[in-house]
Amino acid sequence: MSVRELVVLGTASQVPTRHRNHNGYLLRWDGEGLLFDPGEGTQRQMLRAGVAAHDLHRICVTHFHGDHSLGLAGVIQRINLDRVPHEVTAHYPLSGQRFFDRLRYATAYRETVALTEAPVDADGVLAVRASYTLEARRLSHPVESYGYRLVEPDGRRILPELLAERGIKGPDVGRLQREGSLPGVSLDDVSEVRRGQRFAFVMDTRLCDGVYALAEGCDMLVIESTFLDEDRQLGLDHGHLTAGQAGAVAKEAGVRHLVLTHFSQRYSEPDEFERQARAAGFEGELTVAHDLVRVPVPKRR
User: Fold this and answer.
1) b/e map of 79-94 (b: 16 or more CB within 10 Å)?
2) Mean of the pLDDT values across residues 257-269?
3) pLDDT tier at 35 (50, 70, 90 boundaries)?
4) Which residues contact 169 (CB under 8 A, 6 or more apart)?
5) For the chain, what is the radius of gyration of the CA atoms?
6) How many whole angstroms separate alpha carbon 164 and alpha carbon 113?
7) CA distance readout (Å), 241 to 140, 181, 264
8) What is the per-residue pLDDT across 268-300, written as a single tens digit (0 to 9) for each?
9) Which of 224, 270, 294, 295 minimizes the number of CB atoms within 10 Å of its CB?
């Protein structure tokens, strides 16, 4: 059975706290695992969350600030120590290649795994798999930063009432799905488009075109909300969003499930983030993320 869920490993911004680890997010998407922004302590958080090195297939780094990337060294060494049997691909801004190199070879270890470097230097498609297309969009932050988006291909949903009208039943249903047509009937005649799921990961950024492009029509949007609205100028100065801005983006983009994260250590009351996102007009599902929480991707419409 396919599993699509977000495993939150850490939710702090620049400084970890007693209750929040540095960033780290694992997206389980059917048989693959995509690890986003492994900050310091990610390897230990993986252990606590029941995430194994063998679960990782891609590592996606938005930018090279420490709270989003210092865990790379430990994660890369762990996949080699555990002799992960499949290829692991790493995406990150090309402008930060020197940082990736330093983290990949921070200390001595034996390389046993095929780690493919696939840096990002422009908006566009990064990978095409059977169950998703991975895309990147440039964000607005003091250092080069990209957000990531997964888009599942659209499928078809069989409509039983239309099958019955045409007298199609039993083995002919499977044949129609496999071959696309039967004498006098096409698959389109008895089905409708089943929209593929969409997931986006948006970290450190001001409001910009990339934020909206990533969020558009998402079933789940994981987005930073470093500041509360009263500190909006701080967000603008340092390249971050507020809870209200994140909520407004989600509303405008038609997001189904909004996950707020990357919280400044200056705040101790998480309920205010939800209140401000709701005040901006977002009415869908909303999660104020906590470390080690698991959030299922919403079922298809």
Assistant:
1) bbeeebeeebbbbbbe
2) 94
3) very high
4) 163
5) 21
6) 52
7) 10, 50, 11
8) 888 999 999 999 999 999 999 999 999 999 998
9) 294
What is the distance, to the nearest Å, from the Cα of residue 243 to the centroid of all Cα atoms in its chain? 18
Q: One of 37, 55, 67, 229 is an active-site residue; which one? A: 67
Q: Which residues are 60's β-sheet partners?
A: 36, 91
Answer for the pair 269, 235: CB distance below 8 angstroms, yes or no: no
Q: How many CA atoms lie within 13 A of 177 on its CB side?
A: 13
| Residue 235 CB partners (closer than 8 Å, separation 6+) | 206, 226, 227, 241, 242, 245
The verdict on whether 271 is a catalytic residue reads: no
145: phi then psi, degrees, rounded to nearest 5: -145, 145
Residue with tokens 């790379």: 72
The pLDDT of residue 167:
87
Interior angle at CA 75, CA 69 and CA 80, nearest 5? 140
Give CA–CA dist 257/156, Å, rounded. Answer: 23
Query: CB count, 10 Å around CB of 195?
Result: 15
Dihedral sign for Cα atoms in the order 213, 218, 222, 226: positive
- Sign of the C-alpha dihedral computed for residues 55, 223, 66 and 98 taken in this order: positive
